[in-house]
Specification:
Helix 1 packs antiparallel against helix 14, helix 2 crosses helix 14 and helix 6 packs antiparallel against helix 14. Strands 12, 13, 14, 15, 16, 17, 18, 19 and 21 form a nine-stranded antiparallel beta sheet that branches. The chain has a four-stranded antiparallel beta sheet with strand order 5-4-3-6, with no helix packed on it. The protein contains 14 helices and 21 strands. It folds into two domains: about 120 residues, Rieske [2Fe-2S] iron-sulphur domain (Rieske Iron-sulfur Protein); about 270 residues, Naphthalene 1,2-dioxygenase Alpha Subunit, Chain A, domain 1, CATH 3.90.380. By secondary structure, the protein is an alpha+beta fold. Bound molecules: FE2/S2 (inorganic) cluster and fe (iii) ion.
């Protein structure tokens, strides 16, 4: 029995066996050993999203973020370089910086007052000439994350000294980020700090859903169809594509033109904004994708997802505004996560349109968002099942949509982008791809 508290190796062997039939034991969604191994094997060895360059545009700007459970300071130093460093003081381990964001010349520890330069180097301490006559400042700086990378403004870091290059790891996901965030040379910016709220479920529940769960929309969100906010939800599966692009990175596209009509290409952005985009920086396969099954949600392994969708700042009233948000599924404890959500806008967009996008995005996906509440409440069950006495956390969950002839989920023969595209929303190839990567990382020694 691979229930909670059993040997991790036995549970991972069960995962391997069940994944061969596209199933997964529920125990992985709240298990102490699984969670501890995830912190080490997944968050301790992979590139993790930390934020956007527009959050720290100036020297000394910083934000507090997390890699797994570890708090880090993401700061822009005097040379303009982005540095990511541990937020634990080297004296007694106190959490050094206590503000979520700001601008700092130095960081001073609240416990005994050790002072660090903005780049993490040890600088001084109270009574330094009497207290630390022999202290070597070079030994006592903050621990720095060895690998930091930026792609399309997104900041990633990897705490492993043996990290592969970011672009190699992103692979096909970089191609998607280019098609999503590289449409204008001025790029996008955050519209404020991330909203954060706690959800009583595992971080993987959000990551898998945002990477490819089209099947839930006409059930979990049907009340939004009933009141006219989400249209034709029961037909949506016909206009979907699922992109599994390698390394567990997974995306979903919608053909808005087929769904809503000719005016709805390019996510329904207004024409004056689309005219400012420079599609010549994209390759033909990217342009074809934007003109057909435009990518609307996706997950970059392990815990970064995005949304770009037309919504209304005033539900039921036209025109729509197309919001872009990045979200992160932050692990907190077995069966508990924090959801972090940033709203973005194009620097080339008007202030008025940006504000409409922000409101539309918050209406749909935020702590009180209409879609968000539908999603988060249904995710809580699996974290309880994972620890249940009956039927037991080792019970298998079903990921078999589109698996070996189970349902009509054809491969798109015309797809020229990375990985595999399947047409129709009745499939779970993306979730399988995510969990295959998850298992590889968990079993790697
Ligand atoms: Fe930071 Fe003592 S713990 S100065
Ligand atoms: Fe949903």
């Amino acid at each position: 029995m691979a229930t909670n508290g059993s040997d991790l190796g036995v549970l991972l062997q069960l995962c391997e066996k069940e994944l061969e039939s596209s199933m997964l034991p529920a125990a992985v969604f709240s298990n102490d050993e699984v969670f501890a191994a995830e912190m080490k094997n997944i968050f301790g060895r992979n590139w993790v999203f930390l934020g956007h360059v527009s959050e720290i545009p100036n020297t000394g700007d910083y934000v507090l973020r997390r890699i797994g459970l570890d708090p880090v300071i993401v700061v822009r130093d005097d040379s303009g370089e982005i540095i990511v460093m541990s937020n634990y003081c080297r004296h007694r381990g106190t959490e050094l910086c206590q503000s979520d964001q700001g601008n700092a010349e130095t960081f001073t520890c609240p416990y005994h007052g050790w002072i660090y330069k903005k780049n993490g180097d040890w600088l001084s301490a109270p009574h330094v000439s009497q207290a630390y006559k022999e202290l070597d400042p070079k030994q006592w700086g903050l621990a720095k994350v060895p690998h930091v990378g930026v792609h399309q403004g997104m900041i990633f870091a990897n705490v492993s000294p043996d990290a592969k290059p970011l672009l190699e790891e992103l692979g096909g996901a970089a191609w998607f980020l280019d098609a999503l965030f590289g449409l204008h040379p001025d790029g996008m910016r955050v519209m404020g700090p991330p909203d954060r709220w706690r959800v009583q479920t595992d971080w993987k529940s959000g990551a898998e859903q945002f990477g490819g769960d089209n099947y839930h929309v006409e059930s979990a969100h049907i009340s939004l169809d009933d009141i006219g906010i989400l249209q034709s939800a029961r037909e949506m599966y016909k206009i979907n594509a699922q992109y599994a692009v390698g390394n567990g990175h997974i995306f979903t596209g919608h053909n808005f033109v087929k769904w809503f009509g000719a005016d709805w290409d390019m996510w329904g952005y207004p024409k004056d904004l689309v005219d400012k985009f420079d599609l010549t920086v994209l390759d033909q396969a990217q342009r074809d994708m934007l003109a057909s099954e435009t990518p609307v949600v996706g997950t970059i392994f392990p815990n970064m997802s995005y949304l770009r969708f037309p919504g209304s700042p005033d539900p039921g009233v036209q025109p729509f505004a197309t919001y872009t948000s990045i979200r992160q599924w932050q692990p907190v404890a077995p069966g508990v996560m924090e959801l972090w959500s940033w709203q973005f806008t194009w620097n080339a967009a008007s202030d008025e349109y940006s504000e409409q996008c922000y409101v539309a995005g918050q209406n749909a996906f935020s702590a009180s968002g209409m879609f968000e509440q539908d999603d988060t409440v249904v995710w809580e069950g699996v974290a309880k099942l994972a620890r249940s006495v009956f039927p037991g956390g080792d019970i298998a969950l079903n990921y078999q949509l589109g698996f070996e002839g189970m349902s009509e989920n054809p491969i798109d023969p015309h797809w020229k982008g990375p990985g595999v595209s399947r047409l129709s929303g009745i499939g779970e190839q993306n979730q399988r791809s995510f969990y295959q990567r998850w298992l590889r990382e968990m079993q790697a020694s």
